[in-house]
Amino acid sequence: MKIKHLCIGIVVLAFCCPLFGATEFFVATTGRDTNPGTSAQPFATLERAQNAIREVRRQEGGAVGEVTVWIEAGTYYLQDALTLTREDSGTEVAPVVFRAMAGQAVRLVGGKKVTGFGPVTDPEMLARLPESVRKDVVCTDLKGAGLMDYGEVAAQGKRLELFFQDKAMQLARWPNEGFVRVVDVKGETPMTTHGIAGTREGKFTYAEDRPNAWAAEQDIWLHGYWFWDWSDSFERVAALD
Q1: SS3 for the chain, per residue?
Q2: Is the Cα torsion angle 151, 218, 140, 213 positive or negative in sign?
Q3: N or C: which end of the chain has fewer CB within 10 A?
Q4: Rounded mean pLDDT of 154-178?
Q5: Calpha distance 155→159 (Å, rounded)
Q6: What b/e string do you get for 113-130 counting C-beta neighbours within 10 Å, with b at 16 or more?
């Protein structure tokens, strides 16, 4: 009877423990996606680690123990969103975990690192800037950095932002504080809405002469309260006379 009880205990213990050992992959900013993903030869991207887990599961017929992706310190620039699907999910006894190395700071960035800034030398661009600040303005080639779509100023959440030292930079604007006052409303088609007179064309005049330097610019946007004093919007300038 003692032997029988001992055998039952061993069988129960076997069913309570994972049948597969733990699997580990490593990712580092100094790695390569052609590496095997070990501590000594890490991957370079999370996507490669994700695919490695899927490959192991296919080889093992879907039965894999706990999987941990260890991410070494650094900033990782994501070309596309990292999408985790049901295929990437683990279980309570065999979870899939993406984890930073102990005590190390890991940053996942969906933007692009922009470099190569230098002084503005294009005469046409310089003519748009006040002479007093021309030496302080720098520029770079965004297309050279692979940025072709700059989004739209008017589309919330779809416009690009520039970050420097972890702070969002303010888009160049005029005036820097407050608003420019409309002097007069022009247009050939009068209209009245809610008792307020205006025109359909959206033409108006202003007193300042600063915008004169932007006459050749084809992508000027205005931000203001164009009708309701509680509702602001962005409007693209059709022409600057």
Answers
A1: CHHHHHHHHHHHHHHHCCCCCCEEEEECCCCCCCCCCCCCCCECCHHHHHHHHHHHHHHCCCCCCCEEEEECCEEEECCCCCCCCHHHCCCCCCCEEEEECCCCCEEEECCCCCCCCEECCCHHHHHCCCHHHHHHCEECCCHHHCCCCCCCCCCCCCCCCCEECCEECCCCCCCCCCCCCEEEEECCCEEEECCEEEECCCEEEECCCHHHHHCCCCCCEEEECCCCCCCCEEEECCCCC
A2: negative
A3: N
A4: 84
A5: 6
A6: ebeeeeebeeeeeeebee
The per-residue pLDDT for range 151-162, each reduced to its tens digit, is 888 766 677 889
pLDDT digits (tens, 9 = 90+) for 45-56: 999 999 999 999
Neighbours of 16 (CB within 10 A): 8
Positive or negative CA dihedral for 176, 179, 185, 187? positive
Q: Please state the pTM of the whole predicted model.
A: 0.67
Tokens of 53: 């887990």
Yes or no: say if 233 and 154 are a contact pair by the CB < 8 Å rule: yes
If you count them, how many residues does the chain have?
241
Q: How many CB atoms lie within 10 A of CB 25?
A: 23
What's residue 122's pLDDT?
A: 94
Domains of the chain by residue range = 17-109, 112-148, 150-241
pLDDT at 21: 67
